[in-house]
């Protein structure tokens, strides 16, 4: 049997791709529902005469969602914040997520990089360019592309972004010998 002439059954792969797209759409839908629920709770809290009571009521939204979905409060808070940021500042990424073109993990990677960008126009450029790449490459390739994007888009920020962290992690390879101790030269 010649491998080149063999009919390749792609039906199984097509089913997996369809399922993955449904999962991604479900993740986007869930994130949007969490965001809408949190906003609704915040508006309900604003009706109280005492703003402290309203803030207290609104502060429980992540706990409420977490209990209902079996998720940690931190996970829910992160998801709501991410959904708010992406829906506002990266409409192309948001739309691609809802279409099932990219999944939650890729959205997380993109959002993480967007948070590191200093200039709003860099976030806009990221939103304009990233979806095409994210839909045709693996998550690992996307991560490398995002690193290159940051280096290119905000090259002038390199020192603020990387050098201070590098300098904090430098350690000495030679032990420090106090002056005047038996092993010192002074």
Per DSSP, the total helix count is: 10
Overall tally of structural domains: 1
Mean pLDDT: 86
Enumerate the spans where pLDDT stays under 50 for 5 or more consecutive residues: none
Largest sheet: none
Spatial gap, N to C terminus: 82 Å
Order of helices and strands: HHHHHHHHHH
Keywords:
flat, 71% helix, mainly alpha, 10 helices, 186 residues
Provide the fold topology:
Elements: H1 11-45, H2 51-59, H3 61-69, H4 73-89, H5 91-99, H6 104-116, H7 120-134, H8 139-153, H9 158-161, H10 163-168
Helix pairs in contact: 1-2, 1-4, 1-5, 3-4, 4-5, 5-7, 6-8, 7-8
Structure characterization notes:
By secondary structure, the protein is mainly alpha-helical. It has one domain. 71% of the residues lie in helices and 0% in strands. It is flat, with a radius of gyration of 24 Å. The protein starts with 10 loop residues before the first helix and ends in an 18-residue tail after the last helix. The model has no long low-confidence stretch (mean pLDDT 86).
